[in-house]
Design brief:
- By secondary structure, the protein is of the alpha/beta class.
- The protein has 2 domains: 120 residues, Metal Binding Protein, Guanine Nucleotide Exchange Factor, Chain A (Beta Complex), CATH 2.170.150; 131 residues, Rossmann fold (3-Layer(aba) Sandwich), CATH 3.40.50.
- It has 5 helices and 16 strands.
- The protein has a 7-stranded mixed beta sheet with strand order 6-7-8-9-4-3-10. A 4-stranded parallel beta sheet has the order 14-13-15-16. The chain has a 3-stranded antiparallel beta sheet with strand order 1-2-5, with no helix packed on it.
- Helix 2 packs across helix 5.
- The protein is elongated.
- The mean pLDDT is 88.
Length: 270
């Protein structure tokens, strides 16, 4: 069984496990290799990708960066940064590219003016951990709340933005933020392919002048009992009472599984 191939079919590939991310890349190098504005790729750990027949040919496009193509037809196959032990397969060569949805734009500082995708995804440059822009397509927004905004709400934000097809965007905050992500949450995020430094513990006061909030979802009983500040929009309040992994009440894997089920149901009905 294969998951994709080059144009002539000489190079096929198969993947196992979940991707680290799916992203639209605007860098000049990907544009020139693929001829696409932008180029979309799916990132995996090295061990998740195999070429059962003919291996693609690689060349070092810059120090420590290898790009691959079919030696017969020239189709662009992957991008491989050796310092991260990853392989980023170009989405266009998948047999079923519709299975995957991008969650972000990267190298947006190199984007070609006049060629914009209509979505509501965050735009990152090569040097930023926080988005420098968002897409123009309207979205509905969730604000996940916990008192400390260090564990459950951080995971909920990350999972929702990965699972959403683009119409719903998630944020998180706390009434009394700890100011730092719990170390267990950071470890979980890293294991799942997220960049922990892209998340931070912050006050709900930041959202009094932020985007319109469609839903406020509280994840701890204490936050549910508190009075939120005035937020833009007319937010519906929902409560998902979950045990606290930061307090040792549940493992991070277990609370993430519970959140995934709740989020999947929520997204399917909205």
């Amino acid at each position: 069984m294969t998951d994709g191939r080059c144009l002539c079919g000489a190079v096929t590939f198969a993947v196992v496990g979940q991707p680290l991310w799916v992203a639209h890349c605007h860098c000049e190098s990907c544009r020139r290799q693929t001829g696409s504005i932008p180029a979309t790729f799916v990132g995996y750990e090295d061990s998740c990708v195999r070429y059962p027949n003919t291996s693609p040919q690689e060349y070092e496009s810059s120090p420590g960066i290898f790009r691959a193509f079919c030696p017969n037809c020239g189709s662009a196959i992957h991008y491989r940064p050796v310092h991260r032990e990853e392989i980023h397969l170009y989405l266009g060569i998948y047999d079923d590219p519709a299975r995957y949805r991008a969650s972000k734009h990267v190298f947006y500082d190199e984007h070609v003016a006049g060629y914009e995708l209509s979505d509501n995804l965050p735009r990152f440059t090569a040097d930023t951990r926080e988005p420098v822009a968002w897409g123009s397509q309207p979205s509905r927004n969730i604000l996940f709340l916990c008192t400390g905004n260090s564990a459950r709400s951080i995971l909920a934000e990350a999972l929702t933005n990965r699972m959403s097809t683009g119409g719903i965007r998630a944020y998180s905050a706390g009434s009394q933020p700890t100011g730092a992500i719990n170390s267990g949450a950071a470890t979980w995020l890293s294991k799942q392919g997220y960049e922990p430094t892209a998340f931070r513990s912050k006050s709900w006061d930041e959202f009094t002048t932020g985007p319109d909030i469609t839903w406020v979802i509280t994840l701890c009983d204490s936050a549910a009992a508190e009075t939120c500040p005035m937020l833009p929009g007319k937010a519906d309040r929902i409560h998902w009472g979950l045990p606290d992994p930061a307090a040792g009440d549940i493992s991070f894997d277990a609370v993430a599984e519970e959140l995934s089920t709740l989020i999947q149901t929520f997204l399917a009905s909205h």
